[in-house]
Amino acid sequence: MDLKKLLAGAVAAIALASFGATPASAEECKRGDLDSRYCDNDGDLVADTPSDPSEQVDPDTLVFAYTPVEDPAVYKHAWSDFLTYLEEKTGKKAVFFPVQSNAAQIEAMRSGRLHIAGFNTGSNPLAVNCAGFSPFTIMASDDGTFGYKMAIITHPGSGVEKIEDIKGKKMAFTSPTSNSGFKAPSAILKADFDMVAERDFEPVFSGKHDNSILGVANKDYPAAAIADKVMYRMIERDVIEPDQVKIIYESQTFPTTGFGTAHNLKPELRAKIEEAFFTFNWEGTTLQEEFSKSSEAQFINMNYKEFWDVIRKIDAANGIEYTCN
Questions:
Q1: What is the SS3 assignment for 157?
Q2: Packing angle between helix 267-279 and helix 80-90, nearest 10 degrees?
């Protein structure tokens, strides 16, 4: 399995979504790593809102998608109360759009079919640079702390007690665009343990974090790299038992899912959407019901340039470039 070709394929799939979308600006402008259809004149690394009002969009129905980490049906319910509140704040209909992959989610925003989204940690840079995603908030606990850790897990009886024991065995990743499911563990295994996929172990891709976690719990994989909060939510929902898995490595804390909008929404609409996030009362809602399992309790303000700095560095260490075509 050629991992570089696999990642290139994921990025190439995103590029196919260019149909139906008109570049925000063909003019010469500052854009950094952004795709040529976007400008970044203010230097915040995120696509600017088009200055021409005719290029700004104000849809009657707002389409929202949450990162495809786990069962979409679970999260359609989890986000239902928030979407009702979003309708009240914006005066527009809001619908949940289930996506099956990170690439499909990015394609949807790049082609103009997705207006509001939560992109996972690893796909945020691709969404920002290739799809004009403009993130502004993440979830946090009551005390304002946020983030998650990449964990490498195994199951009792696997013969894996430490990282080095993975040599010669299979290791599950989620997808090439995932930070904790692929990019961070790849960089850490190489830098700290001199272990490289295909040379030292056989990499397999499960598609999603819950697939990897279930695969380890059911002894299909001897080891997997996952986001720890996904595992804790699955334990809280009794999807797996705590004694079915064990952690053998934990990373530093990474920023969790970033939420934001397409860059070309009318500023007045984006302001109402931001207000909905920051004024939403979690108490007794379906959002609290699901995300309290991983200690989230509010939305806090963030900016991509600072919060995703460590993720961009991991991408650089892995030789990943944000090329969209």
A1: coil
A2: 140
Residue 78, CA atoms < 13 Å, CB-side half-sphere: 21
- Helix 309-317 vs helix 124-131: crossing angle, to nearest 10: 90
**Residue with tokens 């998608």, as numbered in its chain:** 65
Q: 6-12, long-range: CB within 8 Å, 24+ apart, which pairs?
A: 6/176, 6/205, 7/176, 7/177, 7/320, 10/102, 10/103, 10/175, 10/176, 10/177, 11/126, 11/130, 11/323, 11/324
> pTM of the entire structure?
0.78
Residue with tokens 């799939």: 13
CATH superfamily of 3-145+256-317: Periplasmic binding protein-like II (3.40.190.10)
Architecture of the domain made up of 148-254: 3-Layer(aba) Sandwich (3.40)
The strand pair at 170-173 and 258-262 is best described as: unpaired
What are the pLDDT digits (tens) for 137-148? 999 999 999 999
Tell me, what DSSP letter sits at residue 122?
Answer: T
DSSP labels, 74-91: HHHHHTHHHHHHHHHHHS
Mean pLDDT of all residues in 17-24: 42
Calculate the alpha carbon distances from 26 to 50, 55, 200 in Å.
11, 12, 46
